[in-house]
Design brief:
By secondary structure, this protein is mainly beta. The chain has a single domain, classed as Barwin-like endoglucanases. The chain is built from one helix and seven strands. The longest helix is centred in the first third of the chain and has 6 residues.
Length: 105
């Protein structure tokens, strides 16, 4: 399975990843005050330092298997637009924790 097609990745800048001893293709746990998701890290120079990019619209559970990470689980309910109540997905502080395994394929 292509990890990018499955939405199983987050993108981080190479300088940030190096400072945190994170490697491309490594499973990481992305955490916020609301929750955490385990995903695969993709390191790229197209991201600005301090920026993390995760795809939206994933986290589907089908046949007992989860496909991708649901960013809604990472966004605090109170962290939203006061008028429209739209979550601030793009402005959510996160932390990283390296997991011990790699995604194969």
């Amino acid at each position: 399975m292509d990890r990018r097609a499955a939405g199983l990745h987050a993108v981080d800048a190479s300088e940030d990843a190096a400072a945190l001893s994170l490697e491309d293709g490594r499973r990481v746990r992305v955490s916020t005050v609301a929750g955490s998701e385990e995903i695969v890290l993709e390191i790229t120079d197209t991201c600005r330092p301090g920026q993390v990019v995760m795809p939206h619209g994933f986290g589907l559970v089908h046949g007992g298997e989860t496909y991708g990470a649901n960013v809604n689980r990472l966004t605090p309910a109170a962290h939203r637009d006061p008028l429209a109540a739209t979550p601030y997905h793009k402005l959510c502080p996160v932390g990283w924790k390296r997991c011990d395994d790699r995604l194969s394929g």
